[in-house]
Specification:
CATH architecture of the largest domain in chain A: 3-Layer(aba) Sandwich
Number of domains of chain A: 2
Strand content of chain A: 15-25%
Radius of gyration of chain A: 24 Å
Structural class of chain A: alpha/beta
Largest interface: A-B, 120 and 119 residues
Largest sheet of chain A: 8 strands, mixed
Oligomer: homodimer
CATH class of the largest domain in chain A: Alpha Beta
Number of strands of chain A: 17
Distance between the termini of chain A: 67 Å
Shape of chain A: globular
CATH topology of the largest domain in chain A: Rossmann fold
Strand order of the largest sheet of chain A: 10-11-13-12-14-15-16-17
Chain lengths: 393, 393
């Protein structure tokens, strides 16, 4: 081995690693070779964005940290680097993009993204507050598995994300299960990538605020095997509305998921060990799943639920809604939690639904937050919901 | 429920979903509102790229499908859409980006990416050949888990990716294990995201060309808990070279990984049930792990291995290399496979290494391919290596 001469391994590899992106650079004007840091989170939690764009005339940064109408024009330095520094920002997981002479683009110096339907934005996390729960911290971590279950009712195998808590593999005990449902446009990845569900759960368990539990995140679009890029459709442009998302089929075939989980994991396979919660369309699914199987879940969470009549849909799932709610009520449950933001476009629908529940004497806990129909709220709701689970005396 | 009026749920949600990216649109010139398809794979396997950029002066597409020097200038249509159509392309998983007036950017209409160290490029898959193995096909799928193991030797918990084959959960049998190692700049995600390891394995098992096996993909950077964004460092700009990647620590603590896997999975915990393979730095690790534990692995694969002297490094792992190779040889093994591309910068180092093995009478199989130090080659090598595993009579 000693005689094998080999000198510039690292240099050569370094060049090779960065070669693909400039493979045809002989054709191209160059402008992205400078090594810069963007975004940079400053000590006061302000953020500096930078972009190397010597030929650009006007560059903005746009993102959900801006107050509507807030100026976000970047300034060009002499070396072709544009920059913009925000005010100190409250703790949150933000998304952003650049706009260069009218063209929206991602930050080439930031490798962290989140996809929402067909758009992809860069991520940015400000700690020292609520978003500390969204961080990977030095705490024990659960296992996240992507696996496939046979859905006879939908005649396909379907992908599912399952979180098991720290210690699951080493213990012999059984765990309660939260079924956590995504919204329209989401899939079995949404609660992990946009919702930071595994980080929130790891952190709350570590803080002693949530009990160790299994979290099951199925794909609620029954026409889909799996998230975009993960099914036999491979790479295609995701679309917002899929067929059969709210036609009763998901609710009808939901028992397949419960059976799969109970047969593959050490669960507490009874009502006291089961919770179901969902956001938007997933709140709709939660409402219907929990009353359609009216003695199955002890903990129910509606996050900005898409409460809407499904009168045009022919499905036995949406028949006898009032009667099944009465049954659910008389069966009893430990928690029925309804959360919504004041600016949510579903706010009035939720008020109407609560009035209906009030008329029925159907107990629930109501949580009204600021803001609207956003992942920011759904992460907050999850972090408030988990501590209330599986603690019935 | 019938009286809860609710009319434009889908429209409202649609607007909301696409709102974040234009949240401060009052500040911004608009240019990305047109719904276009890019990339579009045509019937003859040519590809049409499109970008809405009405203000741009010159737009190129750049990617690893181009022949060096090939012209890739896009043409502006009257509606501000630039487009470029390639020649029919051979089956492959390609990466690409746009270059707009000197600024490299991702395709805003393509949500599929791969990260390699600190750069992120769009993905594009052409089937009808080798890359059919890289597709998600309608075949049984294995489970992919991200979990954490305790590394006492590195004094941290570390993230690891584990693939179990279709049927693992339902069977009671034990499976052989391939330890599959990444290169410098990679991590426990690289073989999944860049190497398409789960797709290749699912497909080869389904075709009866590979036996069902567990594949373990650890993180070979022992200074790291986990891939960028997945450790307690959270979001930071990844760098190419990390400390302690080739100083013996990984090889020394590798038995912890084997013990973790053997104690958490139904493995065949003996030499005949173990393979180890890796690319570049992972090939270096494979060479040393397989001879440092000289009676542990029956199948060894060096893919474009970074064969290099580590004379400046003080580690008992790199002492007595020749003697341990002799021991490994006399212990015997089922397969020692060395693969490299003719244009690889490590080509000569691999020739020298083979000459050394020849002098020692150390048996191996040599596979020389076209091309260089690329994921294209490593996916091909994996698809050729898997069928040779665990079939010793």
């Amino acid at each position: 081995m000693k005689r094998i001469y080999f000198i510039q391994f690292f240099t050569a590899l370094l060049v090779l690693t960065f070669l693909p992106k400039v493979q045809s650079q002989e054709n191209l004007p160059s402008g992205q070779r400078k090594e810069i840091i963007s975004p940079e989170i400053n000590a006061d939690n302000s953020v500096t964005f930078r972009l190397v764009a010597p030929n650009a005339k006007e560059v903005f940064v746009t993102g959900d940290f801006l107050i509507p109408g807030e100026e976000s024009k970047m300034t060009k330095e002499s070396d072709g680097i544009w920059s913009y520094t925000t005010q100190p920002l409250p703790s949150e997981l933000y998304t952003y993009a650049f706009n260069v002479d009218g063209l929206q683009m991602n930050d080439p110096n930031n490798v962290y993204y989140r996809r929402d339907v067909a758009s992809t934005l860069n991520l940015l996390l400000i700690g020292d507050g609520q978003a500390d729960l969204y961080k990977v911290n030095s705490v024990p971590h659960g296992t996240v598995s992507k696996q496939w279950y046979q859905s006879s009712g939908n005649d396909m195998t379907r992908r599912i994300t399952i979180y098991t808590p720290p210690g699951y593999e080493e213990s012999k005990t059984s765990y309660p299960v939260l079924y956590l449902l995504h919204g329209m446009g989401g899939d079995e990845e949404a609660w992990m990538t946009l919702g930071r569900a595994s980080q929130i759960t790891d952190n709350l368990i570590d803080q002693g605020k949530a009990v160790p539990m299994i979290i099951v995140m199925p794909n609620g679009n029954v026409a889909q095997e799996a998230a975009p890029g993960e099914s036999s459709l491979n790479f295609y442009k995701p679309q917002f509305r899929l067929p059969h998302t709210m036609d009763g089929k998901y609710e009808e075939t939901f028992q397949e998921i419960i059976r799969f989980v109970d047969s593959h994991y050490r669960t507490i396979p009874e009502k006291s060990g089961r919770a179901v919660a969902g956001l938007s369309m997933g709140g709709f699914h939660t409402l219907h799943i929990s009353r359609y199987y009216p003695n199955t879940f002890d903990y129910i969470g509606l996050f900005s639920a898409a409460i809407m009549p499904n009168e045009e849909v022919k499905s036995k799932v949406y028949e006898d809604i009032d009667a099944t709610l009465v049954t659910q009520k008389s069966n009893g449950y430990a928690l029925y939690w309804i959360a919504i933001g004041k600016e949510d476009f579903l706010y009035q629908a939720n008020i109407d639904f609560r009035e209906k529940l009030d008329r029925m004497g159907f107990p629930y806990i109501y949580r009204e937050s600021e803001g609207g129909h956003t992942w920011r709220n759904w992460r907050i709701y999850l972090s408030e919901f988990l501590p209330m689970l599986f603690n019935k005396k």
